[in-house]
Amino acid sequence: MNAVVTDWTQVVDAHGETERVPVLLDLVEREEAPEAWEELWDRLCLHGETVSPASFAALPRLADLAPATAQALELAGAIARGTLQHPDGEVLLAGRPEVLSRLRDLADQRLRSRPAEYDRVFGDLLALAGQHHWSAALENFDDDFYTVACPHCGAEVTIAIGDYGFYSAIRDWDRGDVERRELLPAQVEELPDPGRWMHATAVRDRQRRIAEGIRYLFGRAECPTCASVFSVADAYTSANLPPALETA
Ligand SMILES: [Zn+2]
Q1: Does this model's pTM top 0.85?
Q2: Residues near ion ligand 1 (Cβ under 5 Å)
């Protein structure tokens, strides 16, 4: 049961409307119209990323449905991932701590079952935990590249983590990644948060590629230009702070 009764006439969906979302939620709850899920996605997470006030208002209902319905957890995770796409997203999401905690537990349970879509659910869990830029940044460490600025000399440094190698380099338009330096992965015991729990979760679920990738992402890189050594995660975070935080 929801402690707060939502006044649906006050929250608009992605199409600027207020009537359809509560109707659709009732339909999927009674399992009367499976096609209603498609319209819910369209109204609550348009194109898989555009959220609206109705998206956040729907989270308690989705959390109620999630234990029995994989679709509900997936949609709730997508809404959490879309948080930064909406100017009030972080405030709207943070206003529902109890719902978030239930959804996080459900996503974590889902990960323990090591589903085929592990990478996506892992990203959902990060978003539900408020780690929005890591949720957006993390792919699957198959061939991930991150562009950061060296904190000492400002040079643009490319970080590769995956099948192409584990290195920092200067990306040259003609010659590819040149002046490569091997990355220095973090020791497990020195991993900072959120890298520590991300790594522990991946290890628990025997996701070796993700666990190793996290050690590199939260490790250190050498700048090919000035030879200083810096934290990859810190450099990536300062390059990708949400606009609101940059000016704070
Ligand atoms: Zn440098």
Answers
A1: yes
A2: 150, 152-153, 155, 223, 225-226
